[in-house]
Amino acid sequence: MPGSRPVTAPGAAGEERIRVVIATPGDDGEDRATGTLARGLRDAGMEVVQAGRSSLEQLADTVVQEDADAVGLPVLPADAPEVLARLRALLADRGVHDVVVFGCGADAELPRGTRLSPPGTAPAEVAGWLRGQLIGEPPWTPRP
Predict the structure, then answer these.
(1) How far, in Å, CA of 23 to CA of 29, rounded?
(2) pLDDT class for 142, splitting at 50, 70, 90?
(3) Which residue(s) pair with 141 in the sheet?
(4) Residue 100 to residue 20: CA distance in whole angstroms
(5) Which residues neighbour 118 within 8 Å (Cβ) at sequence distance 6 or greater?
(6) Rounded CA gap, 39 and 45, in Å?
(7) How far apart, in whole angstroms, are the C-alpha atoms of residue 45 and residue 40?
(8) What DSSP string describes 30-74?
(9) What percent of the chain has pLDDT above 70?
């Protein structure tokens, strides 16, 4: 079950890194934003699985298969809250209740257990937030 592995900061001896699945929902989306976020999370020491363009059902299956700690949608349509709520419901249908769900888009009312970062949020900021959610580290901010 996702989240059952010990998750720690990168570099801890014998510990696994945070595993994040990144995807673009549906057929339309910006691959550049997905790639940028994936590289940024990798640079922050996280293991990233790029699921490409996927339906929400495919994405939920990938999260289960990859034993992910988090799932991110860097590009969301205008109905982002509904998309994130649907993804959370699909994960729950598969018995997954402890995966962090996040996306990037305009601020909106979100389902519990999800976060929506504003467009243009630096990947390092997203990585810091994920670490805080998964291992309790204080948010990391890049030095100027």
Answers:
(1) 10
(2) very low
(3) none
(4) 9
(5) 104, 105, 106, 107
(6) 10
(7) 9
(8) -HHHHHHHHHHHHHTT-EEEEEEEE-HHHHHHHHHHTT-SEEEES
(9) 67
Q: In this structure, what token pair is assigned to residue 1? A: 């079950």
State the residue for tokens 């910006």: 30
In terms of C-beta density within 10 A (0-12 exposed, 13-18 middle, 19 or more buried), how is residue 68 classed?
buried
Q: In what order do the strands lie in the sheet with 47-54?
A: 47-54, 19-25, 70-73, 100-104, 114-117
Mean pLDDT for the stretch of residues 1-15: 45
Residue 11 DSSP code = T
Residue 32 has pLDDT above 70, yes or no: yes
d(CA 68, CA 100): 9
Q: How many residues does the chain have?
A: 144
**Token reading at 2:** 């996702």
Does residue 116 contact residue 84 with C-beta atoms inside 8 Å?
yes
In this prediction the pTM is 0.70
The CA distance from 8 to 88, in Å, is 24
At 18 the three-state DSSP class reads coil
Contact 21, 63 (CB under 8 A): yes
Which tens digit of pLDDT belongs to each residue from 58-81?
999 999 999 999 998 886 666 777
